[in-house]
Hints:
With 191 residues, the protein is an all-beta fold. The protein has strands at 2-4, 7-8, 16-18, 20-23, 27-32, 38-40, 43-45, 49-54, 60-62, 65-67, 71-76, 82-84, 87-89, 93-98, 103-105, 108-110, 114-119, 125-127, 130-132, 136-141, 147-149, 152-154, 159-164, 170-172, 175-177, 189-190. Mean pLDDT is 90; it is low at 183-187.
Amino acid sequence: HRDLHSFPTRRSSDLVIDNCVFEQNYYGVYLYYADHSEVTESTFTGNYYSIYAYYVDFGVFENNSIFGQYYGLYAYYSDNCLILNNDINNAYYGLYIRGDMTTIENNDVLKGYYGARVYYTTNSYIANNSFYGNYYGLYNYYGGMNIFFNNTVERAQYYGIYNYRSDNNEYYSNMIKDNAWPYNTELGYYG
Length: 191
């Protein structure tokens, strides 16, 4: 693997960042208008934004380990992305996603504030993820026509799944357990 301080890009496409280590940066990887780029098999520790993807269509973010940041994976205006098999620990926003037709699958997000915040996202598939010990497990904000399938949300401090002004979403076979809303009232789903 290769140790890097930061990897900024602007208006580049088809980049592959694989098996790298990013520590104590404001941006670990900064992708801006970088379609068809991949960030895989890398480790991020103590960065404010571990992976920052802005207008990155058809991006692949897979098999990364992310520890203790404010944003684990931030993908904004990034459509048709694959976010797969990432381990994210102690990030305020584990996954912060605003992009359509995106697949978010098989990720483990632990002990942050938001496990996943899906923001103005449509036609996406969120499945087989595990969210444990976050304040909000899954937070769907103004999203529509998304499918949430077979996700596990456990021990969220406030809400397991919070659906805010989000219509026409489908929730199937999700396991929501041991979540506690304030005042010790369990509330697995709100919306």
